[in-house]
Write a structure and sequence with these properties.
310 residues; alpha/beta; 8 strands
């Protein structure tokens, strides 16, 4: 099993450097966009933003305009075109694929359509169809860190500076069994990548390595509360998985706190949010606007009540 990335290193952190980490959460991406907007509204300027799975999309949306929130608004608008059907997850689509591929069925659906939406958004926001990670960490923009999992080695893989951001976000959000793995060549190595949350659903270690001494661990999904009964197999999988991911994320937070000691601090951000009024990924403009707004307001209250402004 690969060693934790901090196992042989004691990171030197500075509390003046703010890092924000977004966990995975599937459809709860809407909540994460609201959390991101709260940071913008409160004037919290991050040095680095990290994310996995759906949280990687929130991280990119936040990082591309951390002052005005244009990326967050663009992401919310793009999600109006996302549905179970666009992701190949309608009951009929899944049944047809299962009947056709049978024992060779690799996934229930596909998140490839997300990449097309990302390319359009990046073109509008940054003037380029192909945005790389080198675009970030300069010109007033925070560093953007996205993690995926190498399905063959079990390693957490950080995308290098020349990697395509849109492709990286699709790979990092490839929920095993729900979306297919993605092949990419990174630093000359061919990788078979799946959801980054498989190995690290709250990427705090990478923020510590970048010197961030004030970190916000933004969590969505299960946080110890009572869950509703699942409505279908996808909902059942996502909710059950979120329980295990929450436990792993808390362990990552405790581990990083141990490694940085009194030199830094990690704030857990988990605003109370009502159950999403959608089935799977069937978003509507009304649902998107309501959930993002409520998550934003809840996050601002959480940060102010907990007195965890940097």
């Amino acid at each position: 099993m690969p060693e934790p990335i901090l196992h042989d290193r004691v990171p030197e952190v500075d509390r003046a450097r703010v890092g924000i980490s977004y966990s995975g959460g599937g459809p709860l991406l809407l909540v994460e966009l609201g959390i991101a907007q709260a940071f913008v509204d409160l004037g919290i300027r991050p040095y680095a933003i990290a994310g996995v799975s759906a949280g990687a999309i929130a991280a990119a949306a936040h990082a591309i305009d951390p002052v005005g929130g244009a990326g967050i608004r663009a992401a919310a608008k793009s999600l109006e075109q996302v549905s179970n059907r666009s992701l190949g997850l309608s009951v009929l689509q899944v049944a047809e694929r299962a009947a056709w591929e049978r024992t060779h069925l690799m996934s229930l659906g596909s998140n490839e359509s997300i990449q097309e939406l990302l390319v359009v958004a990046f073109r509008d926001l940054a003037g380029s169809d192909r945005l790389t990670f080198d675009h970030f960490g300069r010109g007033g923009l925070p560093m953007l860190i996205v993690i995926a999992t190498d399905r063959l080695t079990g390693e957490a893989v950080r995308f290098p500076g020349d990697a395509d951001v849109a492709g990286a976000l699709v790979a990092s959000s490839a929920i095993p069994g729900v979306f297919p793995p993605r092949e990419m060549v990174l630093d000359g190595v061919k990788r078979l990548l799946v959801d980054g949350g498989v190995v690290n659903n709250q990427p705090l270690s990478v923020l510590a390595l970048e010197g961030c001494g004030t970190m916000y661990a933004c969590a969505v999904g299960y946080d110890g509360e009572q869950l509703q009964a699942p409505t279908n197999l996808i909902d059942n999988y996502l909710k059950a998985t979120s329980i295990g991911l929450h436990a792993a994320a808390r362990m990552e937070q405790a581990y990083v706190e141990l490694r940085i000691g009194d030199a830094g601090v990690i704030h857990h951000v988990h605003p109370p949010v009502q159950e999403l009024p959608v089935s799977g990924f069937d978003f509507t403009p009304e649902v998107i606007a309501t959930v993002v707004r409520d998550a934003c307001d809840g996050t601002k209250r959480w940060i102010q009540e907990q007195r965890i402004l940097p």
